[in-house]
Amino acid sequence: MRRPALPRPAFLSRPAFRRPSLRDVAAGLRARLVLAFLLVAALSALTTAALTFREARTAILKRTQDTAIEALRSQVNSQVPDYTFPLSQQALQDLQHRLNAAGGAQRWTVHLRYHGSGLVPGGGPGRIPQGVQAKVRAGIPAFQRLDSGGEPWLAIGLPVTYRGTSEASGLEVYAQMPLREDEANVQALVKAAQRGALPAVALAAVPALIAASGVLRPVRELRRASRKIAAGELDTRLKVTGRDELADLSRTFNDMAEALEENVAELRRMEANSRRFAADVSHELRTPLAAMTAVVDVLDEDAETLDPDTAYAVRLISEETGKLARMVEDLMEISRFDAGAAALHLDEVDVSETVRKTVQARGWQDKVAADLPEGVRARLDPRRIDVVVANLVGNALKHGGAPVDVAVRVAHGEEGRRLLIEIADRGEGIDPDVLPHVFERFFKADSARARSEGSGLGLAITLENVRLHDGTVRAANRPGGGAVFTVELPLRQGGGETA
C-alpha cells in the first residue's frame, strides 16, 4: 500500500535551484570584491609608478643639466684667459670654435655675445630663451629646458667676469645641448613602470580571490544553511568563528533557526493533536450515528401516519442526521489522508464510462452536458475518481446551476500524455479573492453562510484524491462566465492493481 507524504507547509517548500548565469556572477559579491581589490591594487601601482617616474625624471634631468653647466663653466674658465680683452671679432669666433670642440661629449653648441652685440651664431636650434639672456645680462647664470622642432634641448647662459674679481667682462657665453638621450632614458623608465604595473595588477588577482573567498565563506555557509532550513532541515546551525559582523550574523541566524524549529515543532504538535481529535471524534460518532440513522429511517417510513407537526420533526431529524453522517464520513476520509493511510487501488478503466456511471448513479443525466469520447483508457482508482467527479459536479450544480459541462480529453505536453477532466458551470464564477482558497478545508466564500448542506470538506477531499494519483486540480473562471475545475492526471496504461 502506498502512503502519500503529508503536505509540507508553504514556508518549508524546497526552492527551485537555478544555476547562476554569467550576469549573476558578474553582479555578485565575489566579483565586486575582486574588482574593488584589483582597482585598489591598480591605483596603488599607478600612483607608485607615477611618483617614481616623476622623481627619476627630475633626477635624470638635474644630473644632466648640473653636469653640463659645470662642464661649460670649466671650459670657459680654462679657455677665456688665453685671450686679451677687449676681444676682437676674430677672437670671439676662435673662442666659440674652441668651446664647441671642447663640448664633444655633451654635444653642445655655443653662442657668444660681447658687450651687448648680437649673438655669434653657432648652430643648434638658433635661439636662446629671452629669460635666460635677461638673467645673464644681469650677471646671473641661468638655464632652461625647451622644445624645438619636437626635440628637447637645454639652454645654458654664463656671464664671464675678470679673473679674481666679480667685475663683468662683457662676455656672455650661451650653450644649447640636446636632451634626446635623457628623454630616451625617461621613456624607457616609463615603459619599465608600465611593464611592472601590469604584472602587479595581475598578481593582485590571487590575493584578491583569496580575500574574497575568506569574506564570502560565511556568506556561502549562510546560503547553504538557509536552503536547508527552506527544505525542512530545521536543526541546521552555523559554526560561529570570530567576532566580526559576519560572526554576529551567524549567531543571529542560529537564534532564528532555533526559534523557528521550536515554533514549527509546536505547530506540528498542535496540528497532530487536532487531527487526532477529529479522527477520534469521528470514530466515536460513527456507532451512535449508525444507531440513530437506523431509528430515523424507521421513523421516516412511518412519517405519513403521524400528525403534521410530528411528521415535520421526524423528517427534519432524518435530514440533519444524514448531514451529520456525511460530515463524519468526510472527517474520517480526511483523517485517513492526514495519517497517510489512504489506499490507492489502480485498475485500467474506460475513463468516459467511469464518469458517465458517476453522473447516472446520482441521477444527474438531465443536469449535465457531457463530452465523453470513447476509447480513453487509463489506470485509475475508480472509487476515488468517482468521488472526485461527484464532488466537482455536485459543487457546480449547487453554486453554478444546471446544466454543468463535463468533458474528458487527452493533452500532450513536455511531461507526456495527460488526462484532463473538466467540470464547468454557467453561474457567476468565483470571486478572484476566493480562488486561491477554494480547496482549503471548511472554507466558505460567504462568511454569512455559517451553515450549509455540505461539510466544507468536499473540495479538500477532491484535492487529496487527485494528489494520490500524482495529479493536480485547479479552479478558474471561464471568459464567458462561470467557474471551471480542471483535473489533470498522468495517463497511466496497463492492467493490474496496486495498493
From TrEMBL:
Its main location: membrane. It comes from the Bacteria. Signal peptide: none annotated. Its EC number is 2.7.13.3. GO terms for cellular component: plasma membrane. Residues 280-493 form the Histidine kinase domain. GO terms for biological process: osmosensory signaling via phosphorelay pathway. The keyword Oxidoreductase does not apply. It is found in: Cell membrane. This is Sensor-like histidine kinase SenX3. It comes from Streptomyces klenkii.
